[in-house]
UniProtKB/TrEMBL annotation:
<keyword id="KW-1133">Transmembrane helix</keyword>
<dbReference type="InterPro" id="IPR055283">
    <property type="entry name" value="TAXIMIN_1/2"/>
</dbReference>
<keyword id="KW-0472">Membrane</keyword>
<feature type="transmembrane region" description="Helical">
    <location>
        <begin position="12"/>
        <end position="35"/>
    </location>
</feature>
<keyword id="KW-0812">Transmembrane</keyword>
<protein>
    <submittedName>
        <fullName>Uncharacterized protein</fullName>
    </submittedName>
</protein>
Length: 75
């Protein structure tokens, strides 16, 4: 199995979950912007940097969910 395999069933099954994750990633984007601004204003607050990293993981969540569902369905 290569990277170019097409698994439309896994994509279709994962699509509703990815849409939910998209809403969560929008919340993550807002948290990332706020965390980045606060960490630039007060660099001594390292917890905001960790919060910004968590927000970036939330932003990447829809892609991770779709990939997981696609790779769970065999050809």
């Amino acid at each position: 199995m290569g990277d170019g395999d097409c698994r439309p069933l896994g994509f279709l099954i994962g699509l509703p979950f990815a849409l939910i994750a998209l809403v969560i990633s929008l919340i993550g984007a807002v948290i990332w912007i706020i965390g980045s601004v606060v960490s630039c204003l007060c660099p001594c607050c390292c917890c905001f940097a960790g919060l910004a990293n968590l927000a970036v993981d939330l932003i990447k969540l829809p892609i991770k969910i779709l990939r997981w569902f696609i790779y769970q369905i065999p050809c």
